[in-house]
Write a structure and sequence with these properties.
This protein is an alpha/beta fold. It contains eight helices and 20 strands. Strand 19 and strand 20 form a beta hairpin.
C-alpha cells in the first residue's frame, strides 16, 4: 500500500500562528492579505511523489500540488491512498503531471491481493466502504485478475477550497482499475471542485490503437457534509453527492481462457464515444462555475425544444443542480476524442484563474 498525505493550513503572516477562525466572506480579501498557505505535511511513499510549486504572490493563501507516479502509471497490485486536509480559509489545487496509465492486470493466482481491498491497516479514517468498492467477495470471486486501485479521503474545513483537477485515467488492454474518493466538507462554507475523467485507452498504440479493451474501470465519488447539532442522526456526516462510473466486461473470463478477443460487453453503452468526464461543484466558492454550467445547459435545452433537429455536438453533456444543504452542480460529459473533451472542460473551469492566479488546468499541458 502506498500512502500520500497533504495537509495545508492558513497561517498568519505576523506570527505564523495557524488561523483557527473562519474567514468571513464579506471581508475575506482583507484578511487573506495577512495570511499564507503552508503545508503542514506533504509526504508520499513510492511509487507516489508530490511536487509543490511556490505560491503566486497574488494568491499566497492558495497552494498547488502535482501528484506524480514513477513510471507514469499503476501496475497490477498497486494500491494508492491519498489523505488530504485543507485547513480553514486555505485553498489547494491537486493536479497530475500526465494521464494516469493503468497497465495490464495479472492473473490472481500470481499477483498479491490489493491491500486496500482487504483491510484499512492503520488508516482507520477511511470510510469502511472505501475498501469494498469494486472489491466485494462476489467481485473477487468473479474476477480472474488483480489490477490497481486508488482511494482518496479529503477533509475541507470552514472557508477552505479544494480543487482536484487530474489528467484522465487511461486503462491499457486487459487492465483493471478501481477508485473510491470521499470528500468531507466540515462546514457549510467549504467548497469543492472535482474532475473525474477517463479515456477508452491508447488511441495511438500500434497501427489501429487500443480502444475499450480494458477489463474493468470503476470510479465512485462521495461528497459528505458535517451534520449540525440540530440534526437528529448519530452519523457525523451526511452524503449529498454520489457519482459513479462502472464499466465491467462480463466476457473477460472467456478471454482469460484463451479464446479469441472480442468486443467487451460494455461497448454498446459507450460507443461511439471515447472520453467521459464528471465535474462536481459544491459550496460557495464553486457556485459561479455551477451557475454558469447550469445556465448554459438550460439555454441549450430550451433552444432545442420543439425546434429543428440539432446538429451533432462534439461533446454530449448534461448539468444537474444541487440544492440544500449546499448549492452546486454535477456535470457529466462524453466526447468522441480527448482534445474536444479537454476544450470543453477548460471552458467550464475558466474561473480557476481568479481563484488560483492562473488557469491551472492548462498549466500542465
Amino acid at each position: 500500500m502506498n500512502v500520500g498525505v497533504i495537509d495545508v493550513a492558513l497561517l498568519s503572516r505576523r506570527n505564523d500562528d495557524r488561523i483557527d477562525e473562519p474567514v468571513d466572506n464579506h471581508n475575506g480579501a482583507a484578511d487573506l492579505r495577512l495570511s499564507r498557505a503552508v503545508f503542514q505535511s506533504l509526504r508520499a511513499s513510492y511509487p507516489l511523489k508530490f511536487m509543490a510549486p511556490k505560491p503566486r504572490r497574488s494568491h499566497p493563501h492558495r497552494r498547488t500540488v502535482f501528484a506524480i507516479t514513477y513510471g507514469g502509471g499503476l501496475v497490477a497490485g498497486d494500491s494508492i491512498q491519498f489523505v488530504i486536509n485543507v485547513g480553514k480559509g486555505a485553498g489547494l489545487c491537486v493536479l497530475t503531471q500526465a494521464s494516469t496509465k493503468v497497465f495490464k492486470s495479472l492473473p490472481s493466482r500470481s499477483a498479491a491481493p490489493t491491500p486496500s481491498a482487504l483491510t484499512p491497516h492503520n488508516h482507520s479514517q477511511f470510510p469502511p466502504h472505501a475498501y469494498l468498492w469494486g472489491n466485494t467477495a462476489e467481485n473477487q470471486n468473479r474476477k480472474s485478475s488483480v489490477g490497481a486501485s486508488q482511494s482518496l479521503l479529503a477533509t475541507i474545513e470552514a472557508n477552505g477550497f479544494l480543487a482536484v483537477l487530474p489528467e484522465p485515467v487511461t486503462c491499457f488492454a486487459d487492465s483493471t482499475f478501481d477508485q473510491y474518493q470521499t470528500f468531507r466538507l466540515a462546514h457549510h462554507s467549504a467548497s469543492l471542485v472535482l474532475l473525474d475523467w477517463f479515456t477508452s485507452g491508447r488511441a495511438a498504440y500500434g497501427e489501429t490503437g487500443e480502444s475499450w479493451l480494458f477489463k474493468r474501470y470503476s470510479s465512485k465519488n462521495i461528497v459528505d457534509i458535517a451534520r449540525t447539532p440540530d440534526d437528529d442522526d448519530d452519523d457525523e456526516w451526511a452524503t449529498i453527492v454520489q457519482d459513479a462510473w462502472v464499466l465491467d466486461d462480463s466476457n473477460q473470463n472467456e478471454m482469460d481462457a484463451g479464446k479469441q478477443r472480442h468486443d467487451p460487453s460494455y461497448l454498446p453503452r459507450v460507443a461511439p464515444y471515447t472520453c467521459f468526464a464528471s465535474l462536481i461543484f459544491v459550496g460557495p466558492r464553486s457556485l459561479p462555475f455551477a451557475n454558469a454550467a447550469l445556465s448554459e445547459f438550460e439555454s441549450v435545452h430550451v433552444g432545442h425544444h420543439g425546434g429543428p433537429k440539432p446538429q451533432p455536438q462534439k461533446v454530449l453533456w448534461s448539468a444537474s443542480p444541487l440544492t440544500l444543504p449546499l448549492y452546486g452542480a454535477v456535470v457529466r460529459a462524453a466526447s468522441r476524442n480527448t482534445p474536444d473533451m479537454r476544450a470543453f472542460l477548460s471552458e467550464k473551469l475558466e474561473g480557476m484563474r481568479k481563484e488560483f492566479g492562473e488557469h491551472l488546468f492548462e498549466r500542465q499541458l
